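Obj: model holo form, ligand = zinc ion.
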Amino acid sequence: MQILGIETSCDETAGAIVEDGRRVLSNVIASQAEMHGRYGGVVPEVASRQHLEAVLPVIDATLAEAGCGWRDIDAIAVTAGPGLVGALLVGVNVAKAIAYAKGIPLISVNHLEAHLYANWIDGQATHEPPPFPLLGMIVSGGHTDMVLMKEHGSLRRIGRTRDDAAGEAFDKVARLLGLGFPGGPAIERIAAGASVPNLRLPRAWLGDSDDVSFSGLKTAVLHVVRGEKGPPPPVAETAAAFQEAVVDVLATKAAKAAEREGVQAVVLSGGVAANGELRRVLSERSPVPLYVPPPALCTDNGVMVAACAYYRASSAGLDLDVSPNLPIA
Ligand code: KG4
Ligand code: ZN
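Output (holo structure tokens):
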């Protein structure tokens, strides 16, 4: 079964064709990061316009790269939410129009659930899909959610952020440090050049809760940058101390929840899962095998949408609407 996945929920216009939920036949991404970088963050109206320009060329390129025609496509999957309303509308309307015109079934996909499915993609011959039950951690620009997944389609959210998403914290702190957008890769790059930070930033543990909070950490960085705690340390050191604090909280919470719930695997995904320190520390602390997609499949893409659709097959009608605030479960 060959599914075309379309993703336009934020600032990536992406298409992919995936066979049987695991084999990538094509993967095309038109990123708007450079454009939004000029404004220091994603501007929703700009994103919608960019998606409109890019979506048809991206879909053409997705078919061409796979050597497929429309007759080879068994279903069209599209992200219906959560995300920016104007951005989602572009993908959903294009998917509906093609489904109608070509008579191909339409499948609606939850963007957060899709992030997890980047871990089902066949990377190497030895790569088996993650075993159930598993603990899923989605750390993206807009969300930070921890879920228990018993099987495909059976998800329960056990934790979330109470304020900023992990990626949002990276982006905002990068801005404070003058490092540009998107902040995650910029902070990781500069932190890699820093020695072990003397600076120790606060962690919000929130007792035994599986929730996280990053706004206090962000404010602590602001105080450091303003010199309220003494002469500000070099930017690289502050970046490293910030990254260390975020990674410490996420890895500790995920490892604890995995232990308590008796899962078989921890499955990490979302843009922040591209972070090498998070991958390293969580794999050290996790009591069960850690699954993380290759960095290119952590950030938004069409592959995860097509893969998710294969396992979920939640078909949609042509009255499908966008759900900007759709929760993961
Ligand atoms: O999943 P994603 O592409 O989009 C959303 O669904 O939000 O995540 C984007 C987020 C941004 O906040 C970006 O700064 C962060 O992921 N990110 C990273 C890294 N690469 C991307 N954060 C930390 N380290 C990275 N290497
Ligand atoms: Zn995402």
